[in-house]
Amino acid sequence: MENINLRDVRSRVDEPPWLRPRAAYVHIPFCAHKCGYCDFASLAGADHLADRYLDALERETARKLVEPREVDTIFIGGGTPTRLDVRQLERLATMIRRWLPLAEGGEWTVEANPGTLDADKADVLASAGVNRVSLGAQSFQPRLLAALERNHAPEEVGRAVEIVRNRFPRWSLDLIFGVPGSTLEDWRADLEATLALGPSHLSCYGLVYEKGTALWKQLQKGEVAPVVEEVEREMYELVMDRLASRGLELYEISNYARPGHESRHNLVYWANDAYWGLGLGAAEYVDGERTVNTRDMQGYLRRIEADEPAIGPREHLEPEERARETAMLMLRRTQVGLDRADFRLRTGFDLDAMFGPVIGRFVGEGLLEDDGRRIRLTREGRFLADRVLCEFV
Ligand code: SF4
What we know:
The chain is of the alpha/beta class. It has two domains: 12-270, tm_1862 like domain (pyruvate-formate lyase- activating enzyme), CATH 3.80.30; 320-393, Arc Repressor Mutant, subunit A, CATH 1.10.10.920. Helices cover 42% and strands 20% of the residues. The protein has helices at 6-13, 50-65, 86-99, 119-128, 142-147, 154-165, 184-195, 214-220, 229-245, 264-270, 297-305, 319-331, 340-347, 351-364, 379-383, 385-390; strands at 23-28, 30-31, 43-44, 71-78, 102-112, 132-138, 170-177, 201-206, 249-252, 255-257, 276-278, 283-286, 289-292, 315-316, 338-339, 368-370, 374-377. The strands form four sheets. A nine-stranded mixed beta sheet has the order 9-10-8-7-6-5-4-1-11, sandwiched between helices. A three-stranded antiparallel beta sheet has the order 12-13-14, with no helix packed on it. The chain has a three-stranded antiparallel beta sheet with strand order 15-17-16. The radius of gyration is 21 Å and the shape is globular. The protein starts with 5 loop residues before the first helix and ends with a helix.
C-alpha cells in the first residue's frame, strides 16, 4: 500500500495561504534613540515599559489566535527587538514558541541593531529556534550614519556579523543609499565593505524622506539637500550590477539574495498572502481584511489591558481591489513577476481582461516585459517602478 504523508493530506484540505495565515509579524517597538529618517512605530526612552508591553503582547496574541497556530515564517521586527534584555528576549521567544509553532523547515527572523546585539542575546535567540537575523547596517561611514542619526559605529556591524554568522544559518544586512551628502563613491565604498562580510541576502533601499521625521523637517528647512535624481539612479544601477557580479541576484525591487536565501517572510507580503500581525502598529491581513494596530503605546497598552482589540480602522477589500493589490505586489518580484495562471488561481480574475491596456502600454514603453506566461519589470521599469506599480491599483 502506498505510504500516505499526513502532512500532504492536511495541506491539501487546508485553506490556501492567501486566506489562512501561515506567517506572523511580531513588533517590538523599543529603540535606543529615534533615527532621523525613521517612520516606524518605534520609541526611544520607553524601555521601562518593556515588561508591561510583553504582557500586553501575550494577551493580544492569545486573544487573536485563540489556539496555537502553526506558521511557516515568523518575523520579529521593530523598533529594535534586541533592545530587550536577555530575560525579556527569553520570555518573548517562549511566548512565540507556544502560540506560533514553526513548521518543519520554517523561517524565523529577528531584526537586530549592530549596537544592541551581543553573544548572550544571540545565544538566547538561536537556542529558541531563530534561524535568520536581519542586521540594520545602513552605512559604513560615520558621516552618513550621523546624517541618518544612527547611533552605532561602523565597526559594530562587523562585530555583530561575527556573532551572527557563528550561530545562525542565514543572515541579511540592510543598507540605505541616497543619504544627504553621499556620493556614488560613498555608495561604492559601502557596497564593498558589505561584500567583504559575505552576506547571502541584502536589502538596499533608497532613502525616503517620510513626512514628519526629523530628516524631513531638515529638508523642509533647507538644512539638507537630497541626492540628485541622476546620482540616485546611478546608485541603484551600481548596486544591481555589483551585487549580481557576486551572485546576489535582485529578486524584489530592493532585495538581493543568493539563490535559496530569499526572505521567505517577505515573499509572503509580495504574494499578497495572509499573515498575522501582533504588537504596536502591527499590520495584519486575514480573511481578506487588513487591519493595523494603533501606533500609540499608551493607547495600545490600555486597550489590550482592558481586553479590547488595539486595531484602528478595518479595511475590507472587495475581490477586485484585492486582485489589483495582488498584481501590484507581485510585480515587485523581479524574477517571478506576475504570473497569469497564479494570478487567476489566487484572485479569480483574468489578468488581461483586467489590465490588458496598461500592460500593453508599459510593454510598449519598455518598462514591462511579457513572455506570454508572466509580466515582469524590465531593467528600465525598475527605475520607474513607482510609476508602473501605481497604475495597477
Ligand atoms: S533603529 Fe530602526 S526602528 Fe529604531 S529608530 Fe532607528 S530606524 Fe527606527
